[in-house]
Design a protein that fits this description.
single chain, 582 residues, four-stranded antiparallel sheet, globular
Length: 582
Amino acid sequence: MGPFCARVRGRLDVWPRLAPSLHSSVPSSLGCLTISQLSERGPVLAAHEWCLVDEGCIPVRSAGGVREVGILSALLESHTVGGLAVELPTMTPVLLRQLLVPVVLDALGPVDAEAWAEMMDEGRFTPGQCVDIAQYLDKHRDRFNIFDKVQPFGQAAGLTHPKDAVKPVAELMPHVSTGNNTPLREARTDADPEPVPVGEAVRWMLHAQSWDTAAIKTAAVGDPAVKAGKTTGNRTGSLGFLGVVTPIGSTLFETIVLNIPIGDRPDGDMPQWRRDPQGPSWAERAPAGVLDLFTWQARRIRLIPTETEAGLRVANVVLSAGDRVPEPPAWEPHTLWTIKKDPKKGSIRYPRRHLPGRTGWRGLKTLIALDQDTVGVETSTLLTQIASAILTGDLPVTYPLRVETCGVVYGNMSAIVSDVLFDSMPIPVAALRADMAVRGSVIQVCTQAETLAYAVDDLAKHLAYAVGGEPAPAGKGQQPGTKLLHTLDPLVRRFLTGCQRSPDDAELDRAHHAFETLAERAARAAADELLHRLPGRAFTGVTQGTGADAKTYRQATAERFFYAALRRTLTHLYPLAEETTT
């Protein structure tokens, strides 16, 4: 770290540390039902200075391990940090969108392509940028206070439910059971929630803003849209509509820059902490710009602090409905798009959702679909920016880019979380724009893996008919092709990683030949597993139908179709297969 950054870090030593001063101690197992009951059982801090600028709220991963740092340290030291160390993979885009990227954009101003390239080339914030960021956070320091009386960060001051009812902090955590979902013999109940550190509670608060379910919410006192004490028609958090795609760099700094949308900001675009204080009322409106979108307040939340023997903690929250977006804006940068032609409305774009059970590379063709060169799909704005940087030479074709894909599968009218989807994979940036040979090879390898899985499934289907049975319904149970995909998964990822070195044509051909050799071996092993289980009657087979519609299914025919599919698919091993197959 240079002398300037050391000097800025020295300023932190003279800034007041904001650890809570314990006035008394109470057991950590507080029974929390209403705010008044909380006050009776122990001290509840209506206001306390716990500022995100300094206090540990962002978990980062470096050579020294995992630690939690404030926003200022996370940004100024981002070039020394490998990345974020989050509780759930869905937390990574939350911290980037709700905190890190908006602070940088609002402090430094709009970023154009030239400034973006300079930041990536520098690999860290310049001394001047460090000054701007530090001064910005110092100027807006009160807006990052979690327990401010007037405008607590990301919350509505004084937010209450009827009868002062509160919810456990686990209500913000999609992986923790609450309410009627709590197991009968669970150690804790909603009336006795487990307190969590303030920094962790803040992260889950931001996570709820992004991924919360669309369940009916208990209305806040003063909400004009209340109906029978509830707010209906809620939508999921701002990311719930999307199959999120997040570019990841070699350091946290590079990851931040890779997630900065290039372009001017419209008038009125600002992060939530520079807007007027929130109240219980909410509105349906379009985001003013990227800063407004990234820090969208889809819920009204209030964290209720309490002092415990372990220090300041949050055990209860107030959670109600928040602002609604009519539809994801067309300039949403963190999603892929499906494009359809409508005779009346013209071209319609809507976000693509990730599918359960599908690895990220199975959608690679969409990830690198630029300028609608793949019919009906389009990649994210951020990946398009990276492709442009490759084309202009501002980013080397050997850059080790990774992409994280994540999403939430909601069930029962989006009122519950059914599944959380995540994958992380290397993306050869040469495939985005510069090298059509690499681009064609990575698409072909991913397509070949899927085609081999389909061939194994077809073999299983044919063999089931050959013994007089019925094949398993598509999408039901364990399909043999799915098992093969798990076997091929590390082979595909290894090929993608190798292509990040921008190999020449000869290296690429050898790598592709090696992949096909191992893929064929795995596919034949999967077929042998099916064939060895067959009874003898599969040899003679079974005839279905009569007359001209009669069709005979037997083992030999199934094998012939399977091996023909192998030869058609593995074009490096069998280059003349298409010409000789009849």
